[in-house]
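Progress against Task 2.4 (sequence-to-structure conversion) is shown through the following example record, which the project officer requested during the mid-term review.
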Amino acid sequence: MKQLKCLSILAGVAASALTGFIASASADELVLSSWLPPKHPLVTDVMEPWAAEVAKATDGRVTVRILPKPVGSPPEHFDLAAEGIVDITYGLHSFTRDDRFLRSRIGQFSFIANTATEGSKAYWDVYGGTLDAQGEHKGTKLLGLWVHGPGMFHNNQRKIEKPEDFAGLKIRTPGGYVADLSQELDIITQFMGPGEVYEKLSRGVIDGVTFPMEALQAFNLTDYTKYSMSLPGGFYNTSWFMVMNEDVWDGLSEEDQAAIDKISGEALAEMAGGVWDGADARAASYIADKDIEIYDAPAPVLEAVKELAAKHEATWAAAVAETGFDGTAALAEFRDKTGIKH
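Structure tokens generated for the chain above:
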């Protein structure tokens, strides 16, 4: 099965005419596949500066080349690195449909952080440390973990004033926890990559999206959004990884590994979090004069989400306990680090 999956991904590589890029990479030139738009802040302000820092930290012995087009779809990106098809990738844990990243879900819950910086640092400390994230990223070297800003609920049909108002709305979610939560609120969820959202929203295929504030500007969604609801600590979040193929990492010298470690991990979490926060702030200014009502979740909605969230957290903690970790304590540690009272 694994061989068939690998062959499928390789076929995608050929179809995207990127085989030449990969084949031409020298031993010390690492290839990074990026699936976000090239001008997205995560690319311009995180991936590109990090790649430059790798070259600087290793005195040019290791360089990173970011491909102009992705090798495969966003959900394939972890396996692209684990299977050695490309050297470095990033992505969302929720894009992976199996349970290999069970403990990563701590970074997807509601009410976890009011800023991406606080959330990302806590995520690296708790999932990366307490919950042994490396153990769930088999076949790779875990370079970074982060979360985006507080997830919001955006739609163009109605203001959500009571839990029943969610019913029947067709909403794009990134999968994972927020998809399950949304379905329990009688939302019709649809999974798609971020790049597909504009077309589907503009054509009325979906009524809205779960995204942080920055996405309204980044994906040009303001003309098709009328209501944006926020919750303290987020309606949800998304958990992100950046990984390098394990064999490629093992092939680097100890000196270069140490240099790359120093600019990754906690430093990368803080950088990515800061970029998300900056993008959220710019988007808030950008849409200030747009015809979009931004509001806090009314008390009945907040209570309904809290009740459902608590149930999901308990189910997750029980599953995590079977892997030998205390999910309840880890979640409490996470919220203690971000200052969220829950």
